[in-house]
Amino acid sequence: MAVLRLRALVLAVCLVCFYAPASSASSGDFPRCLSASIPSELIFTQRSPSFASVLASSIRNPRLSTPGTVRPLCIVTPTNASHAQAAVLCGRRHGIRIRVRNGGHDYEGLSYRSVQPEAFAVVDLANLRSVRVNRAKATAWVDSGATVGELYHAVAKASGERLAFPAGLCPTIGVGGHFTGGGFGLLQRKYGIAVGHVIDAVLVDAHGSLLDKKAMGRDSFGIVLSWRVRLVPVPPKVTAFIVPVSVDDGAVDVLTTWQEVGPALLDDLFIRVIVQNGVATFQSQYLGTCDALLAVMRGRFPELRMNRSYCREMSWAETTPMDTSNKATSDYVRQPIGRGVWAEIFNWLARPNPGLMILGPYGGAISAVPEAATPFPHRGGVLYNIQWIRDLYAFMAPYVSKNPREAYFNYRDLDLGRNVVVGNVSSYEAGKVWGEKYFKGNYKRLALAKGKIDPDDYFRNEQSIPPLVPRS
Ligand SMILES: Cc1cc2nc3c(=O)[nH]c(=O)nc-3n(C[C@H](O)[C@H](O)[C@H](O)COP(=O)(O)OP(=O)(O)OC[C@H]3O[C@@H](n4cnc5c(N)ncnc54)[C@H](O)[C@@H]3O)c2cc1C
Ligand SMILES: *[C@@H]1O[C@H](CO)[C@@H](O)[C@H](O)[C@H]1NC(C)=O
Ligand SMILES: *[C@@H]1O[C@H](CO)[C@@H](O)[C@H](O)[C@H]1NC(C)=O
Ligand SMILES: *[C@@H]1O[C@H](CO)[C@@H](O)[C@H](O)[C@H]1NC(C)=O
């Protein structure tokens, strides 16, 4: 989808570098330039008394704010589009790159820190978070700085709890970062991922212009300020259950079975698994009543021994899931993993300092979209996604997808690789090492688009799409 592509490039927007062309003006003039168009109470320099608290406001992971972390020169918190435009214009003029922050959930903190020393500014969209729902059209405009929880709540309220939006499980995730990288959650099997439901967007491009999706075209990029999304219908009551199964009660067998059942169930039923401390916990949401769910479970997944006492009927908006904030990485599984391997994994996760594994079933609407239709390539043939702690990464290699070993872009992991600057642009060849894991065959297409729009690679971060310019 255009907007996801847009993001891949937006991402690219961020990192300045030692190689940035020297600007004619000194970077000391950057704050002065900002002050000319942005009210001073919306600009926080390192000397502002509230700089530290504004910076910390949406940092999820203390690992990413230890002393020595490369911090921004300043943080701009726009209250309207013109402030974001001014930040881009001043940044270009004074050779300062910009990183955009919404919910701050990036696993590597790239929205507010740099991995190597550089001068950069953060545009934090936290003040731009309104949600405007059009119930009759089943659409909404949501500003990037809103959280998905705020979006869900506003949609439920405006629609008498009959409309919803298919995106992530954690209510504090920011709309801006989340939509652009894909965005999956409880409704993914029924309706696919967030980016598939984006119908328009408003953004500030690299020249500081304000564009909508029509004007920006398919391959443009910038700071997305606002998104128009298509909402989806949900029944008045959905049913949730949580069934923990310990190793002693047969977790290994039930999990082995789930691998093939979970992705093949009817689309109304989502069952994910969290493996931790010798227990596999099956968490589910079903778009219907407990009675109907029990019939499905008896027929399709009797091994779980789910019964009525586990059912919790509620409105969709009441389903509130969990929050994790460790460094994690991701994998995709295309062939069921054998029982013996699962037994080993359980042993592994039962060690002191235990890890955690979250398995999310694919199939349904998420698999019905062709791989090349959006940059998000993990489609048909994927059984499930795994999110986990790194210890198991090497051990799992034989059992997960290969060539490339696929990974989810929104679970960003710099251990998969970083850009290498050759001459003065990120190298397309070197970027393949991480780019093909996140985007598979779409990586090249994205790089060609980047080569057209930003051949100088002015907008860059540690994992941004490098420009590929075909030799004529
Ligand atoms: C606790 C937790 C739970 C999660 N649960 C899920 C889940 O259920 N499903 C799922 O799919 N993912 C999940 N994720 C991953 C999440 O989708 C990504 O981390 C996402 O990028 C977060 O968006 P953000 O706005 O909060 O992050 P930020 O850190 O603010 O931004 C992330 C990236 O997007 C860029 N960006 C942000 N806003 C914009 C914008 N307006 N325009 C252009 N670029 C922008 C930033 O520069 C940065 O590179 C989870 C992450 C955490 C920490
Ligand atoms: C944005 O805010 C500034 C004040 O900083 C104001 O002058 C300007 O008119 C506003 N622009 C829009 C489009 O609302
Ligand atoms: C449901 O299953 C649990 C655990 O197996 C059991 O303790 C309980 O008695 C069962 N309840 C019903 C109503 O069957
Ligand atoms: C850097 O990029 C510019 C174009 O922006 C180009 O003219 C110049 O030759 C490049 N320099 C090097 C060292 O590659």
From TrEMBL:
Molecular-function GO term, any one: oxidoreductase activity
Q: Which residues does the UniProt record annotate as the domain FAD-binding PCMH-type?
A: 68-234
From which domain of life does this come?
Answer: Eukaryota
**PROSITE patterns in UniProt:** FAD_PCMH
Q: Which cofactor does it need?
A: FAD
**Coiled-coil region(s) at which residues?**
none
Keywords from the named record: FAD, Flavoprotein, Glycoprotein, Signal
Q: Where is the signal peptide?
A: 1-24
Pfam entry (one): FAD_binding_4
* Matching InterPro entries: BBE, FAD-bd_PCMH, FAD-bd_PCMH-like_sf, FAD-bd_PCMH_sub1, FAD-bd_PCMH_sub2, Oxid_FAD_bind_N
Q: Which PANTHER family match?
A: OS08G0158400 PROTEIN
Question: So what family is this one in?
Answer: Belongs to the oxygen-dependent FAD-linked oxidoreductase family.
- Protein name in the entry: FAD-binding PCMH-type domain-containing protein
Organism of origin is: Panicum virgatum (Blackwell switchgrass)
